[in-house]
Amino acid sequence: MKSFYRALFGLLAIYFASASDAITLEKLLQRTLENNPEIQKAKCDLEGAGGRRLVFRAVALPDVKIGVLGGVEGGQRAGQKPVQVFGFGYGGFTQPFFNMAVPASWRRGDIEILIAQQQLHVAVVEQLHQARLAFYTAIYNRDLQRLRTEQRARLQENVGSQKDRYQSGLVDRGAFVSAELEMSELGSPIETARRAYEGALLQLRQAMGDELGAEARLPLPEGKLDYAAVKVDFAEASANAIKHRPDLELARLVVRAAAEDQRILAAAYYPEIHFTVSGEYIPVSGVRRTQSE
User: Fold this and answer.
1) Three-state SS string across 97-162, please?
2) Which end of the chain is more exposed for a tag (fewer CB within 10 A), N or C?
């Protein structure tokens, strides 16, 4: 009775472990979108692009400087204290009035955001495609391994049957050897399918951003493959890819950014006009001085 309960408990543990490790394609894509390291890196780069855009736009923003200086002076002077504290404040305001680099810098900052967004788009498309491909590869090789194993089991039965017939003198030795050879040839395809299946499971875990330690449990894809004939128009597919592929759109944005960088460099050959206001305040003597250009 105890052995029965142990066997029942073992079967239940295997069932719940398999159920907890099973993953559907929809869940795989969702976890990849949330936890994939390449996608997370692209999201961080998009946040950094906002700061780089501000750097590009800073050429058109005003420059304000405010400072305070102070100290202590000593010495014997008629009618004054031997030790006195002094200080004064100063400030300045500079606004670019004419700068050929301003329009190109503003456009370059906007393109920087577009490049980061497109890089995120490329990362999402590539990582989701790799996750989907690994999912289908795992299911395909799992089914292929099961099919090859069933074939080997039937061939094993055939080998046993041919052996009995050979020992009974009904067939010659060639038929028995041929059956054994046919069965042994399935060993390599089964091992190849098993390795491809395990490799696809590893790619699934990498796509989801999970840890790959010694105690890591590989996910088990849930589902089956349906095969259908698909007619592809290569001319239409090529034109659509050239127009909509995210990596090509990213390349176009990089070309636009290079053109704006060239305009920014060329702007250094043109004169610049700035509006400047500066002032100083010395509280000890009450002296004030302002200057504008």
Assistant:
1) EECCHHHHHHHHHHHHHHHHHHHHHHHHHHHHHHHHHHHHHHHHHHHHHHHHHHHHHHHHHHHHHH
2) N
What global pTM score does this model have? 0.72
pLDDT digits (tens, 9 = 90+) for 115-145: 999 999 999 999 999 999 999 999 999 998 8
The enclosing domain of 23 has a CATH number of 1.20.1600.10
Residues 141, 143, 146: CA angle, nearest 5 degrees: 105
Tally of domains within the chain:
1
Query: Cβ of 59: how many Cβ atoms within 10 Å?
Result: 18
Structural domain harbouring 211: 2-292
Using DSSP, state whether 75 is helix, strand or coil: coil
**24-61 pLDDT, tens digit each:** 989 999 999 999 999 999 999 999 999 999 999 988 88
Q: Which two tokens stand for residue 46?
A: 């998009």
